[in-house]
């Protein structure tokens, strides 16, 4: 194919593993993309950055690098170190860090308090209670889908939320395209500290793509999310 | 039916009476819900709370309690006193009060001024001029529908807008689910004092459901609003 | 026809000339409107106001006067001088000026800096670099459409962006209807200085109509934009 950025590399967020992307993967694959799901080790932020970097090296062409939620910190770290194989960064309601920030620096204090308490009770791993996740993270699904999706989630090593990213360059200055996909009913972050434009504007010049859906659209509406990612990633 | 919250109780806002819900009622009924339209007396806020409370007592199962606009204050008062029959509160671009607040405390000063003037000229009852209502309340309708819907409105006793609600508990602490339906082109309140997130965030953990439409969607698009209410009210 | 405002007059923004409206024109024409595309001289803001004013005088009935972007300043100036032939003003992600303001007063400082530099290098005419225009102005198009649309743009005399409008009346006080069409993925202006509600609220009572799309929807989705303009312009 002549498309210069036909390879899509999908980086998952917290709690969910790479299999969360399965629905999106199938659709992008069918549409002719070379798609890779990265299964990060989640042992530390540095480990995740290194692992994702290797996945890009194996792609067949220049890469559209997609990160969701926590995965936005990972792809930011990768892009800071390796721009020559990356065509465009696509943040899907993902964290966009400044140099020296960790995930906990970008969420409201009550989330940090919740994570601290859960991690203390779970040997340093975090999870979300179903009640919160159902209404604030997958508000667009019915109960059956919410339950089956929740059953796929895992305890996530809390260290990855407190590890700080080192960025040599401001993301806005990196010589790659940047897009932000805003799922409009995503209330995983409160409206007073939203994904967009609070975090998206850190990208400098970026392409905005929006769709209706929650933070977990790869579960609740993978077809619509795949379309949004394609529109965000194209030249 | 096994649905634990199959009863929907619909509480109207100001100016419109219960018949405003007719379109939504028909659709929810067809979809298998046990639906009750409450026709509040509007003689005082306390009377409306008491009347709605009795309607819930008569429902066949646990209740999804839906309030529109002023009706949000009514359902808040009901839920504060009676949580055991309520499964979930659904606010449809509705006021979410703090303890001791009245409707006038949550609208911009120019509305209070307008209401004061209209009430003085109408023996203590308020109404909106058609010109304002057509562009700011039912902006998604054509003129014919706007006129026929406006013809159904009534003078509303102003006392209900100045009566203050007493809440023993913060709404966020009530042991019932909470959802907020945001009709996105609703400019009945100015964008500097919006329905969402200004009022919705008072619910604490809540499920956000959005749809395109004005403040009077039960007139202009009852099918879409009924769908949003169903998504907001489900378990 | 009995429609009292069956004439639509379309006023273009900066960089694009009147032909940008061609797609919208065809659809409104087919829907029975008497449509005029104004091709302003762009020699100065006063010239554009005078030229548009003459176009209105030639319309067959009262006019729905539509302005896009910079064109919002033009239609504001026209309406201030000539309300008897104008039924309603429709701003399509357009500038809504205060008395004495120019376009540069309503955009972020980095745009003014960019315009200054480009004008200095182009004998007083401005243009946008393709890279910025593609991601921030026509983010909803594919690359092919973005390129072909960009090829239709022209250097725009910078003087029109620094000429200040004189308004004898606050726009909110003018005895004509006002509507604002907000294309929701328009990030031509940053979210910290948005089109809506920052500029729309200057209209006082106005009708909000929204649709999904970028700043250049007349290129990327003229059918949807024509529908939005019709809903914004109707009685």
Descriptive account of the structure:
- The structure is a homotrimer of 235-residue chains.
- With 235 residues, chain A is α/β, with parallel strands linked by helices.
- The first copy, chain A, contains nine helices and eight strands.
- Chain A has helices at 22-30, 45-57, 71-81, 109-121, 130-137, 143-150, 159-162, 217-220, 222-233, and strands at 7-11, 34-38, 63-68, 86-92, 125-126, 156-157, 177-183, 207-211.
- In chain A, the strands form two sheets. Chain A has a six-stranded parallel beta sheet with strand order 2-1-3-4-7-8, sandwiched between helices. A two-stranded antiparallel sheet of chain A has the order 5-6.
- In chain A, helix 3 (71-81) links the parallel strand 3 and strand 4.
- The longest helix of chain A has 13 residues, at 45-57.
- The two termini of chain A are 14 Å apart.
- The relative contact order of chain A is 0.19.
- The B-C interface holds B 131-132, 134-136, 139-140, 142-143, 184-185, 187, 190-192, 212 and C 177, 179, 196-197, 200-201, 205-210, 231, 234-235.
